[in-house]
Design brief:
single chain, flat
Length: about 200
C-alpha cells in the first residue's frame, strides 16, 4: 500500500532527528508545517501547485464588483477555471458576494488533498519519536533537524577545495569564481551547482 511508503519516510525523519544523520531531501514547507502543527497558508501551497495559487491570488486581488465583472469578461466563469471544492454545491455560481467564501473553501480543499500522505508521514514519525515534542519547535527547526541547514557555507567550501598544481586560490579566475558563487547566485542556484 502506498501509504506505508510514506510511513517509512516518517520513520526515516524520526531516525534523522534521533541520530543526527541528516537526509538530503527538499520538501515543501507544507510538510514541515503539518508535522509541527503550524498553519498552512496559500504560500505553502504555491510551492506545490503554482498555477492554482496564481489563479486564487488573482481572485484575491479583486477589490470591487467592477473588477470582478472585468475578471469574468476576461477569463470567463470562475467555476470553469478552478474546480469547486467538494464542500460547495456543484450548482454554485461564483459571484462577487461569495468570492471570498469560495477562495477560503478552495484553499482548504487544496490543503486537505495532502492529508492522507501527511498523516502517514506523521504516523511513521510517531513510531520513532514522541510527536508532542514537535510542538516545541518551529517548522523551520523541524526541517533542520531532518535535513540540516539549507544554506551553503562558501567559506567552508573554499577551505576544503583542493587545486591542481597549476592553480591557486589567488588566481584571478578562481577569485572571480568564488565571488560569483558567494555573491551572485541564489541558494537554489548554489545547490544546483553542487549537484552538477
Amino acid at each position: 500500500h502506498y501509504l506505508q511508503m510514506y510511513q517509512f519516510v516518517g520513520k526515516l525523519f524520526g531516525l534523522a532527528m534521533r541520530t543526527g544523520t541528516l537526509m538530503s531531501i527538499n520538501l515543501p514547507s507544507l510538510v514541515w508545517k503539518y508535522l509541527s502543527q503550524e498553519t498552512i497558508t496559500l504560500y505553502d501551497i504555491k510551492q506545490i501547485d503554482l498555477l492554482t495559487v496564481k489563479a486564487i491570488e488573482q481572485l484575491q486581488a479583486i477589490k470591487n464588483i467592477q473588477e470582478f465583472d472585468q475578471y469574468i469578461d476576461q477569463y470567463g466563469n470562475i467555476e470553469n477555471q478552478l474546480t469547486l471544492p467538494d464542500t460547495m454545491s456543484k450548482d454554485t455560481m461564483i459571484d462577487y458576494n461569495n468570492l471570498n467564501h469560495f477562495i477560503h473553501m478552495k484553499t482548504q480543499a487544496i490543503i486537505k488533498e495532502y492529508d492522507l500522505i501527511l498523516e502517514a508521514i506523521k504516523e511513521g514519525l510517531s513510531q520513532v519519536i514522541p510527536l508532542a515534542i514537535l510542538s516545541l519547535f518551529t517548522w523551520q527547526q523541524v526541517e533542520q533537524m531532518v535535513c540540516g541547514v539549507q544554506v551553503m557555507d562558501i567559506q567552508m567550501l573554499m577551505r576544503h577545495t583542493k587545486y591542481d598544481r597549476t592553480l591557486s586560490l589567488h588566481d584571478p579566475h578562481i577569485q572571480y569564481f568564488w565571488h560569483v558563487l558567494q555573491y551572485r547566485l541564489s541558494e537554489s542556484e548554489r545547490a544546483q551547482f553542487l549537484r552538477f
